[in-house]
Design a protein that fits this description.
251 residues, alpha/beta, Rossmann fold, three-stranded mixed sheet, 8 helices, 17% strand
Amino acid sequence: MQPAVIFHLAALSSPRLSWDDPAGAVLDNLRMTTNVLDAVRHEAPAARLVLVGSGQVYGSHPPLPVTEDAPFAPGNPYAVSKAAGEMLARQYETGFGLSIVRLRPFNHAGPGQSDEYVLATMARQVAEAESRGDDEALLRTGDVSVGRDFTDVRDVVRGYLLAADAAPGAYNVCSGRATRVEELIEMLGAAANIAVRHEVDPARLRPHDPPELRGSAERLAAATGWRPQIPLAQTVRDTLDWWRDRVASGA
């Protein structure tokens, strides 16, 4: 029995780490996508493929909010790999008749996320400080003035599922609001049992980061009715609780 819907999310997914091995990030991600496209082409050509890319394909200087009509201008090797994967998917659509929904999620966060990402790494630092009995949590951060379009990962996954029934094409998955990292720190402080402050860690600075990035998900909303439902403050609380449990278990 052939699958009716296939979700492709496999990738080396860290923009920061992609600078450590640009060729590996681009070639490995493109190879993964090529393998999936070929497998669908040969084994399940009637299936709907949901290809999860990234809002980072737009780069740092598009008009805000970013719509799906903005040109690609990727600003890091990871984003290049995602742009290339989308371009290849379009070739498989036109050349082999595959049915592909191309999703471009912006920043997402929530319980279970790797501490490679900004909210998760800060929540982990708070949970560890609480566990040690410290009077305060000192967060090591990058630039806290940058604004990003955060959506709870549970809302994002719900969007992926709904998008499987949308017409083939490109869709942003985002909240449409930019939240500064310093605002996330304030939310963590409100949820923490100890004081929270931060210091900039030069190793966490990204020289190519734009000061603000937010998208428009109106196309996805029109096609599926999807809207984010989970407030960001709840995302912060739930992420901190998840890390508290993880730290307590020694995982």
